[in-house]
Each structure stands twice: as structure tokens, then as C-alpha cells.
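Review form for a predicted model. The reviewer records the input and the model, then writes brief findings.
Reviewer: anonymous (R2)
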Amino acid sequence: MDFELPEELRIFKHSLRRFVDSELIPIERQTTAEGGEKLKPEYYDRFCKRAKELGIWMADVPEEFGGPGLSVLARMIIAEELSRTIALPARGSGHIMGPSVRAILFSLTGEMKEKYLLPALRGEKVACFAQTEPDAGSDPGGMRTVAVKDGDSYVINGVKRFITGAGDADFMQLMAATDRGKGSHGGISCFIVDMDTPGVKLGAQYSTMMGDRPWEIVLENVRVPASHRVGDEGEGFRHAQQWLGAGRVRHGARALGVTERCLEMATSYAKQRSTFGRPLADRQAVQWMLADMYIELQAARLLVYKAAVRLDNGEDARQDAYVCKYFCDEMAFKAADMCMQIHGGIALTTDLPIEKFWRQQRSFRITEGASEVMKMVIARHVVKTYG
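Model under review:
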């Protein structure tokens, strides 16, 4: 087993580290509008130009569609390094790496490919992903949005909640139940729905503690052609799994960057700050917090890199992805919390990035698969494997 990154990825990682340290961290409190998560236009344009120069433009896009065809491991290194700063949005630093296209769209063929995938790749159309509902977040099997077949169309009714980017989207990748009795095991289908379709309405917009503002989408008798269904009926959740695994590992990669930055800041401050005549770094209570951060960071990096390599090898890495999501999101929140504790009162101000790391990491323990759900699925695997 080789625990070292290949040389080309080490060089790649170093160039990204240099970019973050020299160009992003010095201006990280200036790049977004106050209280928000959207890059100011001048920074967005600058960072997009640098993304192209660094070779991370359209990083998630396969070569056959005009992307660089980067490995999962390379993409995780990008997430790890860019997350060391709050200069970029926590959700979607990919905004500076070209159009955000979920893997579901790569399943489109023929007319649908021409109408949705290719314009999305060219940045001519923007998509959002609509799955979460008021009563179905971590449990998609409880989905109440229903698509009923009616001739050569489906009639869709329901409400989606916390949908990021819905206000700017041209179309949505909509998950709806076509057989509620089957739940997520063959009962959910995916549809491509234009946002200007009659019956589609934007509802409430939520202001979150993370700074982003997701939307509610209301669907009232929305008629969608059957040709807009992605794959066969009941395959929606399977299509979602195409990107969920890598997405959970990406959570882990992002947590690596946050934890490393918090460790850097906490260690530096502990050496500079003195209380009662001695540096904080001499206090065992502080030393143990730093040691915990370091130990968990080393373990987490192995988990993330292992899962990424398994995905690159085409192996079943679902359990690795669950473990990454759970362990790393929990780790990064604890790291941000300990970094805040070591810094004391100054950490509560917006002069430092700590409070934003803390808020974002707290949210990741809930969104895109709550920690309790990850642990439940892991426990199910343990009982089956070791019982």
C-alpha cells in the first residue's frame, strides 16, 4: 500500500496551496457581500481566470464533454486546498471552476442532451437540484411530491424546501415519487423541469446562519413530458447515487482543509498569546486540543484519500463515503470549536475566519446527510458484516 500521493498530484496540491495562501487568504473577508455567500463580480471574474490557469476549470466535467477528466482523488485535493479559506463560498467553490453540473445530467441523450446538458456546460443555462422537502430531508423515502403518469406526460404536485440556487435556475433536476409504496427503493424518479413551466412557483426564501439563501419551490399540477424523465421510472435515486458517493467524500475533503487551517491558526495563536506569564502553548489543556486536532486530521486524510482511490478504481466505496461524511464533518466542527476556544473573545468577531468556519461546519453535520443518518447506515453495515 502506497500512502503517498503520486508526484504530479503533490505538485498540483502545492500549486493550489500557494494560490490559497498568497491570493485568497489575504483578502478572504473582502470577497463576498456582507452577510452573504455570493462572490462580488470583480473577485468572481478574477478567480475564474485563475481557475483556468491552475487547471481546475470544469474540474468535475469528463473529457468527453470538454472537461479535464480529473480523477476523484485530484478533485478531492482541490476541495481540500480551497476549503482552507473562507474567500470562496463553502457550498459551491465550484462556482469559480465553471458551470456547476451534477452527474445526473451526463445521463441525458439526444434532444435532452442538446437542450439541457450542453447549454449548462457552456454556462448558458443554470440548474438547481430539488430533492429536500418539509417532511423528507435525510429520508427521501418519505417524499410527498408525487408525479402521476397521464398519457405521454406526468402531472407533478408537491413542495420542495431549502433548494440552493432556485432563484437563478433555468431548470431543475426534480426528484418525485412515482410509487410512494416503494419509497427510495424504486419508487422515486428524476425529471428535468423548466422553472418557467406553468405551476412552478418560487415560495419562501430562507436566510440561514451560513449566509446562503435557499428557496422553497411549489409545484401545482405541473405537467412535464415523459421524455423529460431521466432514465426509467423508479431510477431517480439510483441516478442520484452517481454523485452522492463522491459528494460525501468531498465533504470529507473539505473538512480536511478547514481542520488544517484551524490547526494552523490555533497553534500560531497559542505560541503568541501569554496568560499568567506563560504562552498558551505551554498549557496542557491547550496542548491536548492541538493534539486532538492533529491526530484526527491524520486519520481523516487517510479515509478521504482511500475512498477517492477506490472510486477511481471503480470499486463499491459506499461505506467509505458514509464514514468520510460522518467522521470528517464531525472532526472539522470540533476543530473549529477548539480553535475558537483557544482564541477566546477575538474568535467571536468577524475579524477572523473562525466564526465562519464554525457556522459552516455546524451546518454540514445536518445538510446532505445528517450525522445520525450516516451513523445509522454504518451501523446497519456493521451488524450485517460482523453479526
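Findings: Strands lie at 127-130, 146-150, 153-163, 171-177, 188-194, 200-205, 215-225, 229-230, 274-275, 278-279.
Further findings: The radius of gyration is 22 Å.
Recommendation: see findings above.
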